[in-house]
Amino acid sequence: MVSAAATFEPVYSIFQDEEDFRELLSDFYESVQERRGLLRESMQGRQIGTLRVHAHQLKGSGGGYGFEDLTELAARLEEACKQSEPDLNEIGSLVDDLVSYMSRIRI
Question: What is the pLDDT of residues 4-20, one digit of tens each?
């Protein structure tokens, strides 16, 4: 189980040394920076459905770009957002963990 708040060390893709992935990882890095803001905005607006969509997309792309922990964190947020009565405190904590992890991603 990953704990995003446990460390502030940078995280790198498992594909970081593969030449074919460099441009893709650069594009992914840019999108991650944008999504951090979108996650925060969605949380501030209590847009649980939008958070769920962002989490679902990050869950899918995280592993594909070599960030397995991103997939795990996003999956937790997605599940919390799917609850019939979402717990905003839990969701806020999960958003914080996810955004913290995303801020540590490097290429």
Answer: 445 689 999 999 999 99
Give whole-number Cα distances, 2 to 18, 31, 75, 84, 98, in Å. 25, 22, 12, 25, 11
What is the tens place of the pLDDT at every residue in 46-85? 999 999 999 999 999 999 999 999 999 999 999 999 999 9
The pTM of the full predicted model, rounded to 2 decimals, is 0.90
Query: Where do the structural domains in the chain lie, given as residue ranges?
Result: 20-106
Choose which CATH entry (1.20.120.160, 1.10.760.10, 3.40.630.40, 3.40.50.2300) describes domain 20-106. Answer: 1.20.120.160
